Amino acid sequence: MIAFLPRRRCAVLLAAAWIAAGPAAAEPLTFQQALSIVERSAPENLAQIAQLDAARAAVIPADALPDPKLSLGVDNLPLEGPDRYRLDRDFMTMRRIGLMQEIPNGDKRQARRQLAEAGVVRSEAEQVAMSLETRRQTAVAWLEVFHLERSLQVLSELDREVARLRGLVQAQIAGGGARSGDLLLADRDALALEERRDELERDRQQARAGLRRWLGDAADAPLAGEPPRFALDSQRLHQHLLDHPELQTASARIGEAQAELAEALAEKKPDWGVEVAYSNRDSRFGDMLSLQFSFDLPLFTGTRQGPRIDARQKGLAQREAEQEALQRAHRAELESGLASLDQLSRALERSERSLVPLARQRADLELAAYRAGTGELPAVIEARRELIEARLRQIELAKKRDQLAASLHYAYSENRP
């Protein structure tokens, strides 16, 4: 089992490298290319574009008059006597054709157009919000894969150290400077490293699946390039908080509620209509022309229009309260995110400046002491584990910082003018 370990590790590394390489024709996937792909192909974005087109098309007929009505009929047809059911015997019998047009009051038509235009504004805000959300999710997923692959690279770099340490242990045992049990400790440490690699490989495959959620088959391409560094101006972000797409959507919903209220108020004003009819009689009698006007009579507003107006007013109050709640939530999210970003940046700086160099220095010192015969192998293994954890934690901090910066950028900065 112990002698077989290096060969097994080599096979695992070759298989992992072959899987990671993927098809030879695959184009590398940079951060910006991932965003471009999701922008033009994400089903969520396509759905929002279709919704926006539908909302714009609905504006044109919003305030149009209803279709006119054509009426055909017979007036004064005899039902009894010798002339019953005859159209040409009684002078009062007429064949009539008419055209009727209903005309809603001007306030109602204006409110309907305002409602349709508010729907366009809402759809535009929702389309921008969805576009930013898909980019944010794609950025987070790309960064997840990128940093996990960096972690796997770190473990791959340590394989050479594992081989050197095992060779050193064998030499120490041969020279009488170490016990034979040290070789078991070295092999057990190598197995622990293999288990850690398997965990990271599992996480990498899951991260690829998360990226595939947004990019489809393009997510299988090898990553290329470095992640961007987002410059976030805290003061400017606070000043333009209300420009957030979700808040713009909430504002558009208030506009829709106001238009619905205006339409309900317009119900108290009567609509009217006009009808022109031409009546044809027997040739012995003259034809006739009729003109008729009709008016709605909103006499019972307390039980009909009144409750509808009250419902629209309550709906408007609901939308305004929802906007205020959403604004508070986004302000808290922004402030919390900026605080976390500052903490992560400082922790990453400490890791790069002190923690990793110190862990590396200790690992080198313990290894030198063991080589000189004055140190113990458990101390070497412990120091190397601390170095591995320090380097992996540094990558984890960088991942969290980059993902949080991307989330804040696409939520509160990307939509700025």
TrEMBL record:
Keywords: Cell outer membrane, Coiled coil, Lipoprotein, Membrane, Palmitate, Signal, Transmembrane, Transmembrane beta strand. The keyword Transmembrane applies. Transmembrane segments: none annotated. It is found in: Cell outer membrane. GO terms for molecular function: efflux transmembrane transporter activity. GO terms for cellular component: membrane. Residues 1-26 form the signal peptide. It holds the Pfam family OEP. Residues 183-210 form a coiled coil. SUPFAM superfamilies: Outer membrane efflux proteins (OEP) (SSF56954). The keyword Ribosomal protein does not apply. It comes from the Bacteria. PANTHER family: BLR4935 PROTEIN, OUTER MEMBRANE CATION EFFLUX PROTEIN. Belongs to the outer membrane factor (OMF) (TC 1.B.17) family. This is Outer membrane protein TolC.
